Amino acid sequence: MEFTKWQGCGNDFVLIDCRQQELDDYGAFAKRVCDRHYGIGADGVLVILESDKADFRMRIFNTDGSEAEMCGNGIRCFARYLREAGATDKDKFTVETGAGILVPEIVRKDGAITGVCVDMGEPVLAADEVPVTGYGNDRAVDVPIEVAGQSWRMTAVSMGNPHCVVFVDDLKQVSIDQVGPLFETQARFPKKTNTEFVQVLDRTHLRMRVWERGAAITLACGTGACATLTAAVLTGRSDRAADIILDGGTLHIEWAADNHLYMTGPAECAFAGTVEA
Ligand code: ZDR
After folding, report:
1. Half-sphere exposure of 254 (CA within 13 A, CB side)
2. Mean pLDDT score of the chain
3. Contacts by residues 234-237 (CB-CB < 8 Å, ≥ 24 positions apart)
4. Preceding omega of 190 cis (within 30 degrees of 0)
5. 2-59 tens-digit pLDDT
6. Which of 63, 93, 149, 247 has the most CB atoms less than 10 A away?
7. Which tens digit of pLDDT belongs to each residue from 127-159?
8. Exposure pattern of 127-159 as b/e (b: 16+ CB <10 Å)?
9. Which position among 71, 77, 117, 226 bears the catalytic label?
10. Is residue 134 within 8 Å of 164, Cβ to Cβ?
């Protein structure tokens, strides 16, 4: 089957169009093709499907074969592909995801595509819904958590998928490869969690690194950048719009007056090819 390979801020994906023909096992496909030595190499697989509720439907599978509800960097790639492939003649359209129906809009400068802005919907803060246990329906904002024998403070946010945002004074002091997997499987998070480690540079610039559920360290995380801005605003650390500086690039996130998060960033095609289905 044909595929295209994409990246948004270095968070990379294999994109396949399954509107005509579905695969039997997307999880097994993702495990195989995401492998960087024996496969194509990617942080996840994005699947284009027909939707009866929106213009298109997106599914996302992690490198370990698990399915995620949403993917922020992925949906920008998904949207640009569809627009450039002529699957839609609209610059703004709707995509059904595990986080509801989201709305990407192609961003242009002098007519040329420079990126995609996505209405990522409202952040979910009720602990039960993130889900994180121990707080009922309250918000878990700047609450203590023990991981790896250390005390941390975290804010739990769902962008459709779960996030644990941890502010630190010095990002260089955190061994994300060691503590990341322990946050991912912390008993408080029944669906596991993505974890963002964040250092505040100033009120409009936040430096963030991520340990992704089902995928390990990646160069960027779109839903994580949205969760980070949300947590920074709730804890008084930032303005309602800020640049989130990731290992692989920068995303601009705004928590607008309509309570929706808007994420703007790049989406680039690296190459196209064919792979055994
Ligand atoms: C973090 C992510 N790459 C994005 O850009 O939002 C999403 C990937 C899915 C994530 N690993 C999860 O929720 O399991």
Report:
1. 9
2. 97
3. 234/125, 234/139, 234/141, 234/142, 234/155, 235/141, 235/142, 235/155, 235/167, 237/167, 237/200, 237/203, 237/206
4. no
5. 999 999 999 999 999 999 999 999 999 999 999 999 999 999 999 999 999 999 999 9
6. 63
7. 999 999 999 999 999 999 999 999 999 999 999
8. beebbbeebeeebbbebebebeeeebebbbbbb
9. 71
10. no
Q: How is the chain split among helix, strand and coil, in percent rounded to 5?
A: 20, 45, 40
Q: Ligand 1, residues 43, 77, 161, 251: which to mutate, most atoms within 8 A of Cβ?
A: 161
Q: Tokens representing 270? A: 């690296």
Q: Helix, strand, or coil here: 190? A: coil
Q: 194 C-alpha to center of ligand 1: Å?
A: 7
State pLDDT tens for residues 171-206. Answer: 999 999 999 999 999 999 999 999 999 999 999 999
The pLDDT value given to residue 249: 98
Rounded distance, CA 172 to CA 175, Å? Answer: 8
* pLDDT score of 44: 97
Contacts of 231 (CB under 8 A, 6+ apart): 141, 155, 157, 165, 167, 198, 237
Query: How would you classify residue 107: left for phi > 0, otherwise alpha for psi between -120 and 50, otherwise beta?
Result: beta
Beta carbon of 213 within 6 Å of any ligand 1 atom: yes
